[in-house]
Design a protein that fits this description.
- The protein is of the alpha/beta class.
- Helix content is 35%, strand content 17%.
- It contains 13 helices and 15 strands.
- The strands form two sheets. It has an eight-stranded mixed sheet with strand order 3-2-1-4-5-6-14-15, sandwiched between helices.
- Strand 5, helix 4 and strand 6 form a beta-alpha-beta unit.
Length: 367
């Protein structure tokens, strides 16, 4: 099979979907890999490394038009819609439930869209979302600590405090992968951490796993309002698989927060769990609402592309190899987890949460 690796064109997106060692494995398995010139430069993988691995270095148009399988990191942008066509399989983060225009464009093109974020194992885990959730969760606290500094617009607090001075109060909304890693880093930096979730079993597990200045709290509107009112940093880490994130923090709650406090909404790529959030970019990452600093970059892991690229490609490679070796139909028929990743096929929305987000017709995948 011919597999394409285009350069990511999203604002300040430096990740690449495949490393040179991954290319080498695919070529040894008998496949052809087309890499767009410069695709790996942001992660310090140079064209020469891909050539040595057996790839062909080509233009963007060649990657898209010659390939049967295109492997990306982020969703296609409007300038790339022209390349979407029937017979092409697109394997990437799609986050369709947060973007109606993208959903319609992908569906109308006839492309088959497999979303990393909805590939789901029998135990309910999301193997292709997990590594980037780990990165984003850890980054969220670094970012929160940075923007708490007064010259960045924050409240002027040191996250961990010092002897005799209280540490910052960090509230984490959601006890999944993002929330767990955020809490771990915040605790490691000495913050007071409150983690909220609706899953009591998860809260029990985290209470046993995490130690230090750590409290768990059941998530309901009243408790969320009380927690964020006291918070110096709020991390939005809520995930509903493949669906738009629920708005847990309302505009009224934000208005009650302390001036100079910081919100990091990691869920913004699924619409955000803070009512006042909207997607921002690495080049213009923050805005203020009622004196509260919001950081809502939709591709946070793109800021640490070397780590992120390795983490992502480690997880995606077995699925890429399966798709390349078996073809789309055999691969998804043999792998139920991969089949759950198919959001769009032959012009139909095949993932129910995406269809429901925009009141579109849902049609189960039929292979």
């Amino acid at each position: 099979m011919i597999i394409g690796v285009p350069r990511e064109i999203k604002n300040n997106e430096y990740r690449v979907s495949m490393t040179p060692p991954g290319v080498e494995q695919l070529v040894k398995a008998g496949h052809t890999v087309l890499v767009e010139a410069g695709a790996g430069e942001g992660s310090y993988f140079h064209n020469e490394e891909y050539l040595q691995a057996g790839a062909q270095i080509v233009s963007a148009a060649e990657v898209w038009t010659r390939s049967k399988l295109v492997v990306k990191v982020k969703e296609p942008l409007p300038s790339e819609y022209q390349y979407l066509q029937p017979g092409l399989t697109l394997f990437t983060y799609l986050h369709l439930a947060a973007d109606e225009a993208l959903t319609l464009a992908v569906a109308q093109s006839g492309v088959t869209g497999i979303a990393y974020e909805t590939v789901e194992l029998p135990n309910g885990s999301l193997p292709l979302l997990t590594p980037m959730s780990e990165v984003a969760g850890r980054m969220s606290i670094q970012i929160g600590a940075q923007y708490l500094e007064r010259h960045e617009g924050g409240r002027g607090k040191l996250l961990g405090g010092i002897p005799g001075v209280r540490p910052a109060n960090v509230v984490v909304l959601g006890g999944g992968v993002v929330g767990t890693h955020a809490a771990q880093v915040a605790l490691g930096m000495g913050a007071q951490v409150t983690l909220m979730d609706i899953n009591l079993d998860r809260l029990r597990t985290l209470s046993e796993l995490l130690h230090g200045n750590f409290t768990t709290w059941y998530s309901n509107p009243s408790n969320v309002a009380r927690a964020v009112r006291r918070a110096d940093v709020v991390v939005g880490a809520v995930l509903v698989k493949g669906a738009k994130a629920p708005k847990l923090v309302t505009r009224e709650m934000v208005a009650q927060m302390k001036p100079g406090s910081v919100i990091v909404d990691v869920a913004v790529d699924q619409g955000g769990c803070i009512e006042t959030s909207h997607p921002t970019t690495h080049s213009d990452p923050i805005f203020f609402v009622d004196g509260v600093l919001h950081y809502c970059v939709a591709n946070m892991p793109g800021a640490v592309p070397r780590t992120s690229t390795y983490g992502l490609s480690n997880a995606t490679f077995p699925y890429v190899l399966k798709l390349a070796t078996l073809g789309f139909e055999k691969a998804v028929s043999q792998d139920p987890a991969l089949a759950l990743g198919v959001n769009v096929h032959s012009g139909k929305i095949t993932y129910q949460a995406v269809a429901e987000a925009f009141d579109l017709e849902y049609q189960p995948l039929m292979i």
